[in-house]
Amino acid sequence: MKYRSLGSTGIKISSIGLGCMGMSHAYTGQDDRESLATLHKAIDLGINFWDTADFYGNGANELLLGNVLKENRDKIVLASKFGLKYEKSNLLASKIDGSPQWLNEALHESLKRLQTEYIDLYYLHRVDPQVPIEETIGAMADFVKQGKIRYIGLSEASAQTILKANKIHTISALQSEYSLLSRNIEGEILDVVNQLGMSLIPYSPLGRGMFTEDFSGKIEEGDARLLLPRFQGKNLENNKNLMRELNDFAKKRNVHVAQIAIAWLLSKGDNIIPIPGTKKRKYLEINAKSVEIELTTNEIIEVENIISKYPDTGERYPQSALDLTNK
Ligand SMILES: NC(=O)c1ccc[n+]([C@@H]2O[C@H](COP(=O)([O-])OP(=O)(O)OC[C@H]3O[C@@H](n4cnc5c(N)ncnc54)[C@H](OP(=O)(O)O)[C@@H]3O)[C@@H](O)[C@H]2O)c1
């Protein structure tokens, strides 16, 4: 494995992390035994940066990770999040709460589920428009002083919010969607991240499973991707054609298309640490090898040209969920 720095903390984290959400949330096909084996495999491969949230499976994902963490705490740089309140009947309608009261409750519940005394990187999952960011970050900073959080991060925050938050306490990382299909943070947001010496943690770097050999567009009932425009109608047709052409490119280069998607992100800056999600050892091993792949300038141009031939990709979220981002 190769390693990169987490913001200006001096902590070394693997150049790709492990997104654990799908083990307990949003995607069908969950299998705790294979997920636990995947977590152990991550330790063997040196993937020490794990990503979860209280929201994932309404605590189930943190509970799952806690089983492995308790024996391996010093080997893992653990990231979790608070600020989204789980709404089982409609995940996309879940409520944001960035209040100090909810932080206090959510953090202590997460620590219990994770069977740990501290969380290395604790994110505000979505910025709460009802609570000044200074108030939320001030309350998070108090927990840094108490040693319950080591570093603070934001997820899906705007450039303005990051700047305001960083005046109260150093913000070590921004976690936002970033991939060959979702490049909207390029420009203002990425500039601020770089200027402040933060890490950027791209989530859904594989387009939620699109940048893969086996992407057929067939998603099982009950899978949250069915709610996303990219997995519907003409957008889905566009994206299947796109992935077919990108797969041909990957085959010519003798690599997996998932590795191309990850290597493209890694090429965009040394402070970029993608967190591809998987619950399977076989995918984890493929993804881990991405750190060895260096795309040439011509290859980057070729990949980006393939993407631009299929512009009808669709929005990453429906409007109600987009409205919760980049506040
Ligand atoms: N901050 C936020 O708001 C936010 C939002 C979404 C996600 N996240 C975080 O980001 C992480 C990653 O995002 P994501 O899971 O949504 O999407 P992703 O990483 O883009 O894609 C995950 C999907 O790709 C499949 N996959 C992974 N590697 C593969 C490979 N080599 N070949 C074939 N298929 C492969 C997985 O299958 P299997 O499941 O079968 O392994 C899963 O269906 C999450 O786990 C979560 O921690 C954060």
Features:
seven-stranded parallel beta sheet; about 40% helix; about 325 residues; 11 helices; TIM Barrel; about 15% strand; alpha/beta; binds NADP nicotinamide-adenine-dinucleotide phosphate
Kindly name the structural category.
alpha/beta
Oligomer: single chain
Strand order of the largest sheet: 3-4-5-8-9-10-11
**SSE arrangement, N to C:** EEEHEHEEEHEHEHEHEHHHHH
Low-confidence stretches: none
Name the shape in a single word: globular
In CATH, the homologous superfamily goes by the name NADP-dependent oxidoreductase domain
**CATH architectural name:** Alpha-Beta Barrel
Overall pLDDT: 96
How would a textbook summarize the main sheet?
Answer: 7 strands, parallel
Q: According to CATH, what is the class?
A: Alpha Beta
Number of domains: 1
How far the N terminus sits from the C terminus, by CA atoms, comes to 35 Å
E-strand count: 11
Contiguous helical run count: 11
Q: How much of the polypeptide forms β-strand, as a percent range?
A: 5-15%
What integer value in Å does the Rg equal? 19 Å
**Which topology does CATH recognise?**
TIM Barrel
